[in-house]
Amino acid sequence: MSVWDELQGQAPVVAQLRAAAQGEGLTHAWLFTGPPGSGRSNAAKAFAAALNCEQDDVALRGCGECASCRTILGETHSDVTFVRTEKVTITIEEARQLVSKAGDRPASGRWRIIVVEDADRMAERTTNVLLKAIEEPTPRTIWMLCAPSPADVLVTIRSRCRPVSLRIPPAADVAALLVRRDGVDPAIADRAARAAQSHIGIARRLARDPEARERRMETVRFPLGLRGVTAAVMMAEKLVKIATDEANSSNDERDAAEKVALLASLGAPESGTLPPSMRSQVRQLEDDQKRRAKRSITDSLDRTLTDLLSFYRDVLVIQLGNAVELVNVELRSELEAYAAGSTPEITLARMDAINKARVRITTTNVAPLLAVESMASSLIQQ
Question: Annotated region Disordered: where (predicted)?
Fold first, then answer.
C-alpha cells in the first residue's frame, strides 16, 4: 500500500509531492494548508516517508512497504519528529527543543524532518524562535508546517516555505476509503462521510461509533424545537454537556494511565506520602492534563457547533434551490418545513451567529456556556 493512498481526491498535491521526493523542486521548508479534514498532516507524513523511503528507484519512493516508510507512518522513525499539541498553544520551550533537534544530522535516513502539525497554535514570539532555523536550515534538514490557511502562519515564516494547498476530498472518496481500509459497511460509510463533510478522521469516528452518530443527530435536530428563550438556554446547556462529556470520556482513562505510568517510572511507594521531588513531577503532569482537557473540550465543542452549522447549511441549500447535495439527507422533510418558515437572509444570519460563537470559544477566554447561550438566543424561531 503506497503512502499516498490516504490522500483521497488530492491528485495535484500528490503529483507535486511525488516530484519533489524524486528531486524536482525539493526545498528546505514546506507549508501544508487546507481546511479541517483535508488531510494536511497526512500529506506531510506521506511526503516525509517518501523522502526517506529506502527504494533506490526514485519513481518508487513512498512505497509504504520498506522499514523506513513503515516507521515514519507509525511515527517511530528516529529522523522524523512529529509535533502536535494537546494544549492550547505550542510553548516557546517546545519550539527551542525543535530548533535543537533540527540541528542534528540524520541518523539513518536521507533527511532530518520536523513536522509541526499545529503551526497555527504558536504565538508570534514562539514562531520567531523557529524563524532563523527555517531561514537558514542545516543541509540535511526539512521543515514541514501544517495550518488551516496561510494567514494562520506568521508572514515571515510563510514567505520562506513552499506552499502545498489541499482541498476537502469528495464524500464518495472518503466513503470508499472507509470501506477499503476499515471494512465499514458501504451504507454507513456513505452516511458518515456526508455527516463529517468529508473530514476523514471524524468520518471514521462516526462510522465506528453508533453513539457518536446518535449524539451528532441529537445536535443537528436541536433547531427544530428552538421556540423561546427557555429552549435556547436548555439547548446551550445540552450542547456544552455533549461536548464536555465526549471530551472527558476520552481523557479520564488516559489521565489515570499516565499518572500510574509516571509513578511507576519514578519508583514511587505504593502507599503513603510522596517525596517532594516526586510530588512536583506529579503536579506538573496534572497541570499538563488540565491544559489538555481544556483544549479537548474546546475542540469537541467546536466540532459540535460545526454539526449544528450543517443544519442551517442544508436549510440554505433548500432555500436556494437544492443546487448541491444535503449533508443531513435523513432530515430532508424537516429541513424543507423549516426552510419554508424563513428566508436565506435569516439563515445566513444564524450561520454567522454560530461562526462567531466558534471564534469566541477557540480564540478567547470567554466561558463556553455564555458564548453558546448568546448564540442560541440568535437562533430562536420567530
Answer: 268-296
Residue type, 271: S
Sign of the Cα torsion 95, 159, 6, 51 reads negative
Burial label, 282 (beta-carbon count in 10 A; 0-12, 13-18, 19+): middle
Output the CA torsion sign for 283, 286, 290, 292: positive
Tally of helices (H runs) and strands (E runs) in the chain: 15, 5
Q: Which of 120-124, 149-153, 220-224, 345-349 has the lowest mean pLDDT?
A: 120-124
CA distance 33 to 146: 6
Q: Which residues contact 326 (CB under 8 A, 6 or more apart)?
A: 314, 317, 318, 332, 335
The bridge status of strand 162-165 relative to strand 29-33 is: parallel
Predicted TM-score (pTM) of this structure: 0.70
Asked if residue 305 lies in contact with residue 299, where contact means CB atoms within 8 angstroms, the answer is: no
Residue 358: how many CB atoms within 10 A of its CB?
22
Torsion angle defined by CA atoms of residues 220, 177, 41 and 54, in that order, rounded to the nearest 10 degrees: 170
Beta carbons of 305 and 340 less than 8 angstroms apart: no
Which residues are CB-contacts of 122 (< 8 A; sequence separation ≥ 6)?
89, 90, 95, 116, 130
Q: Output Rg (C-alpha) for the chain, integer angstroms.
A: 23
Give the C-alpha separation, 311 to 347, whole Å.
10
Please give the full DSSP string across 9-37, using - where no structure is assigned: T-HHHHHHHHHHHTTSS--SEEEEE-STT
Residue 108, number of CB atoms within 10 A of its CB: 12
With beta carbons less than 8 A apart as the criterion, state whether 77 and 3 touch: no
Q: Which three cell numbers stand for residue 137?
A: 536550515
- Round to whole Å and give the CA distance between 213 and 205: 9
Picking from 223, 234, 217, the residue whose alpha carbon sits closest to that of residue 369 is: 234
Q: Give the residues across from 113 on adjacent strands.
A: 80, 142
**111-124 per-position pLDDT tens digit:** 999 999 888 888 78
Specify the DSSP element, H or E, that contains 201.
helix 200-208
C-alpha cell at 317: 441549500
- pLDDT tens track for 61-73: 889 899 999 999 9
